[in-house]
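Entry 14: structure prediction run for Haloacid dehalogenase-like hydrolase domain-containing protein. Input pasted below.
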Amino acid sequence: MASMLLPQSISLSSHSSSSPSPFPTSVYHNHLSILSTSSSSSFLGCLSAHTGSRLICRPRPRASLSVSCALRALIFDCDGVILESEHLHRQAYNDAFAHFNVRCPLDKVAPLNWSPEFYDELQNLIGGGKPKMRWYFKEHGWPTSSVFENPPESDDDRAMLIDTLQDWKTERYKDIIKSGTVKPRPGVLRLMDEAKAAGKLLAVCSAATKSSVILCLENLIGMERFRGLDCFLAGDDVKEKKPDPSIYVTASKKLGVSSTECIVVEDSVIGLQAASGAGMSCIISYTSSTANQDFKEAVATYPDLSNIRYSRYKSVQDPSLPCEFSCLYIIFTCTELNNCRLEDLELLLQKAVTAS
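Run finished. Output tokens:
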């Protein structure tokens, strides 16, 4: 077995050299990074396997035994998690800007058009459609349009412009979703079904407008799964948008569970901050537009929800190691095997609560 940097009191000698190692040597040399201290009782490594999944663990004191670490609720974001939708939202915004001939002071030749690069930055900076437009117009100047020939100056007129654009954009987005060309991201439906079959509570919490989220869920997860949700919240249901934790705090109350009994699935650092602020463990299923964000507060990150399997965890965990080291073994199978299972999330939650 390839050598690893571990505290002096910890060894991997229990794996005999004659038995096949569960971890390919190439993974050690090419995809493993472990940071450690000299104390095995307080050490919790930081491991990164770049072939598809990352589990990030940090030094933390052990949790009190009174804190529950049983998974009772699985909470999904919608845009970016259930469907990869940011390019669809950008298209709908640009169609709205063109329809109403929205022109900021610098838009002399054509109506406002958000580029893919700019929209990636914008949607990772500000949650919710109306806040995005309000921020943009404050930064770049309020526009002329077919709604207002001159740039609106009063708060009421500015609110009317944003409401008009958002309403039209929402309807355009619905048309795109109803076209039948949009599919759910890998692993989402299976994971939802596993959670329900295991008696877990299931929720969707999105910062988007309720009508657009309902349409997405009806078309992408189906009416039966949608009606079977134990909690559904949209941006209309809370005063503050993500990264404010209000939506997840509200979900916890509606579900009747504590924050430590929930796992949130998000795709962006904004969603991660909202979940963390509510005291919930969060896994990241990142997209191409969020892949480079800083997800150090997540308990795990995956390119989608079909990347790991629970069935081999027990076979690769070394009982001679302190429990806080078991996460070091788990990650190796994450990069090679298929089918993220409900058991994966239960184990991650146990690790997160134990380490918190």
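Notes: The chain has a mean pLDDT of 76. Will compare against the previous run tomorrow.
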